[in-house]
TrEMBL record:
Subcellular location as annotated: Cytoplasm
Residue span, Glutamyl/glutaminyl-tRNA synthetase class Ib catalytic domain: 5-326
Organism, scientific name: Streptococcus merionis
Family as reported in the entry's similarity comment: Belongs to the class-I aminoacyl-tRNA synthetase family. Glutamate--tRNA ligase type 1 subfamily.
Protein's recorded name: Glutamate--tRNA ligase
An example Gene Ontology molecular-function term: zinc ion binding
Motif ('KMSKS' region) on chain: 255-259
A GO cellular component annotation in the UniProt record: cytosol
Role this protein plays: Catalyzes the attachment of glutamate to tRNA(Glu) in a two-step reaction: glutamate is first activated by ATP to form Glu-AMP and then transferred to the acceptor end of tRNA(Glu).
Position of sequence motif 'HIGH' region: 11-21
Length: 486
């Protein structure tokens, strides 16, 4: 029997879209699209304290930027935000209360904290101990009346089946088992403010929205037995679960953390630096999954076709910035110039460099770019003073043959007519120097490159000279000749 596939991405709008959440969204998306299922977005906004203004909009906008689309969401469907579903949660809480499967709890924060401290001191695992334990019915009624009179607002707790065994066959990790006795006692399903807790609301929602598979990060594993308890209490069939391994920083070997300030982790960061969304999509799709084989560059369509949940990795996914840079460069290098020029335009404009040569400059640097914002520092040569030579460059320029090469090349540039000053005519001028001086190879090219651009490495030389212009190229050469005399 095949189930209709319905999966969801359920962000809490507590901040910007993080790469870990983007991966969850992306794998659910790929799973749904591969199997012809439905992918929906539900906003889990019951934690009012952590709510961030605009969090929902920015999450959706960044998903869209990545190229992820969805079939159902708060934009098109009523009540797809948990804050709009309070009546539904209340209905089931009332049902559980009526059936004696849940109860009102009057214990105070202070009492809980004191009990926790006692347990810690005694070396016991912290757990909630039923506050009514050992009370007769009369004592219980008196306790409740007294607390209600004192204005204490109760929470609602699920009466946990301590003898229960909660297990599931995880799509990623295989069989996982929890004992009811080990989850910390009867837990809160409704907070004092009337909002359900995450573990309760998520079950009501996943059931109500007919979710077939819950694919999420493995930080949720310990929540799953609690959720299974709610399915049990409400008499519902649980969906399949799959918990993806965490993402580690390949540099530190530790869990990718928002404190790793040198690692870009928010989709917004990549967007602002001018990465191509296709590259980020491709990179994220390989965080904890791969289709097998050596290839690493895949379009969205290919990833949808290839996606196979059985290949979700059991070991942590490594976030490797170098790989991301490599991949991003590969996408930029192979993209149409039009597209990359458009991507670079805002940065050039802001730097006041959107001149008539701008597109040519982008073409020149495209093969080496990782993100579009790099176009500004890369084009410094064309807009700033000639840089002072670095140590390595000075060393190359100390060779005896250098002045000969530079003088000869300068003379050839000067001899060119204005109409002839074109990239395809500049190469022959370099070759002519070889003929005239007998100097060739590195001894020929390096000094010219350094004299013109100030650096040993850089983009294609004839085009660089062409774009610099004859006057500026000669000025640079003169400057270096002078410098070498000192
Ligand atoms: N709102 C939860 C989160 O952002 C979703 C958990 C789930 O997928 O069940 O982590």
């Amino acid at each position: 029997m095949t189930k209709t596939i319905r999966v969801r991405y359920a962000p809490s709008p507590t901040g910007l879209l993080h790469i870990g959440n983007a991966r969850t969204a992306l794998f659910n998306y790929l799973y749904a699209r591969h199997h012809g299922g439905t992918f929906l977005i539900r906003i889990e906004d019951t934690d009012r304290k952590r709510h961030v203004e605009d969090g929902e909009r920015s999450q959706l906008e960044n998903l869209r930027w990545l190229g992820i689309d969805w079939d159902e969401s708060p934009e098109t469907h009523a009540n797809y935000r948990q804050s709009e579903r309070l009546e539904l949660y209340q209905k089931y809480i009332d049902q559980l209360l009526a059936e004696g499967k849940a109860y009102k709890s009057y214990v105070t924060e202070e009492e809980l904290a004191a009990e926790r401290e006692r347990q810690e001191k005694a070396g016991e695992t912290p757990r909630y101990i039923n506050e009514f334990l050992g009370m007769s019915e009369d004592e219980k009624a008196a306790y409740i009346a007294e607390r209600e009179a004192a204005g204490i607002v109760p929470t609602v707790r699920l009466a946990v089946n301590e003898a229960g065994i909660y297990k599931w066959n995880d799509m990623v990790k295989g069989e996982i088992t929890f004992e009811g006795a080990n989850i910390g006692g009867d837990w809160v399903i409704q907070k004092k403010d009337g909002y359900p807790t995450y573990n309760f609301a998520v079950v009501v929602d996943d059931h109500d929205m007919q979710i077939s598979h819950v694919i999420r990060g493995d930080d949720h594993i310990a929540n799953t037995p609690k959720q299974l308890m709610v399915y049990e209490a409400l008499g519902w069939e649980a969906p399949e679960f799959g918990h993806m391994t965490l993402i580690i920083n390949s540099e530190t070997g530790k869990k990718l953390s928002k404190r790793d300030i040198n690692t870009l982790q928010f989709i917004e960061d990549y967007r602002q630096k001018g990465y191509l969304p296709e590259a980020i999509f491709n990179f994220i799709a390989l965080l904890g999954w791969n289709p097998g084989g050596e290839d690493e560059i895949f379009s969205r369509e290919q990833l949808i076709a290839l996606f196979d949940e059985n290949r979700l990795s059991k070991s942590p996914a490594a976030f490797d910035q170098k790989k991301l840079d490599w991949m991003s460069n590969d996408y930029i290098k192979n993209a149409d110039l039009d597209k990359i020029f458009a991507l670079c335009k805002p940065y050039l404009e802001e730097a006041g460099r959107l001149t008539d040569k701008a597109e040519k400059l982008v073409e020149l640097y495209k093969p080496q770019m990782t993100s579009a914002d790099e176009i500004v520092p890369l084009t410094d040569l064309f807009f700033s003073d000639f840089p002072e030579l670095g140590e390595a460059e000075r060393e190359v320029m100390a060779a005896e043959t250098v002045p000969t090469v530079l003088e000869a090349f300068k003379a050839n540039l000067e001899a060119m007519s204005d109409e002839d000053f074109l990239p395809e005519n500049i190469s022959p001028q370099i070759k002519a120097v070889q003929k005239e001086t007998g100097i060739k190879g590195k001894n020929l090219f390096m000094p010219i490159r350094i004299a013109v651009s100030g650096e040993m490495h850089g983009p294609e030389l004839p085009n660089t000279i062409y774009l610099l212009g004859r006057e500026k190229s000669i000025k640079h050469i003169d400057q270096v000749i002078e410098e070498l005399k000192r």
